[in-house]
Specification:
This protein is mainly alpha-helical. It has 15 helices and three strands. Strand 2 and strand 3 form a beta hairpin.
Amino acid sequence: MGHDEPPSTKHAAMSVRGDPGHATACFSVLMRGKNGPFISIPLSFMMLRPRNPIRLTSWHDDRDRASRGRIKHWSPEATGRATTFSDNERRMKTAGHLIKQLQQALDQVASQKTKQWWQKYLREVIPFRGVAIPEIRNQLAQWREASGLSTWEKHDQLLIALQLFESSVAEDKLAGILYLQDYLFDRFEWKDLVEKYRYLYLNDLIFDWNTCDWFCVRVLGPTIANNGLPCAEAIAGWARTENLWQARSSVVAFVPVSADSRYYPLIYRSCHFLIRREERFAKTGVGWILRELSKHDQNGVQEFVQSHLESFSRESIKNALKYFNDSDQKSYLKWFKTR
């Protein structure tokens, strides 16, 4: 194609998602304008209005589901609504650019000392920029206002927040968590959000305990507090999932609501499944939530520990019994030495 030729289509692909007769047609088109590079433009339109919102499609190939590959990008359906050409065009032109602006702002306030401390503390499982949580929140708020994101529709802001999890860097994921906590988690139906959150785990966008626990305490816990037992039951149901971090979240998410006895049957049931897993962070998740429960339900915690004693690690039972009297703690720890 010569430089003076008009824009033309290089490649086009179409897929249809949704129930028969109630589908979304999605096109991905590569185009090039005059003197410009090829760009990919996703297009979508509703063939018929669906009876129920279409589920988030986080990948374009079902093989990714089996391999749990990284999300390439959040599809137009990620926000749970039909989108127009102008919506998609704006996303493509601005989302990546805005996220880069935030990343650059975080780099400017990063500390090498903080970076080294966190990477050593997490044993190099995830890279850090070196920015503390208060400064991430400060930079996030400034970026949101300066970029005009605060005026965007909530669905578009949700798209940005979810895209932040795609970064491999800890602070970017934490920025996504803070965006959800500060601006979004209470503006959607909990069922829609929990379904989208599930895909963060399935696509390995949450893969370390630090990100997992911040997400639980800052987002999932408040979501449970706002929506009560139906939401709590859905999140507690993650206890049987294969993904370690999703399963851990089924108990750690209840830390912010551990004083509410309505949730105790769900928490103990989830603990029952997690404590029997071999992974360290499954057991430490149980230890943490039991420690918090013991402030309000020490008899229940003691009963659970006694009936599952063989499944505890020394680390997890020590944490679970932190607020018990010294004699009880020593008794259980002595048992671990002699078994």
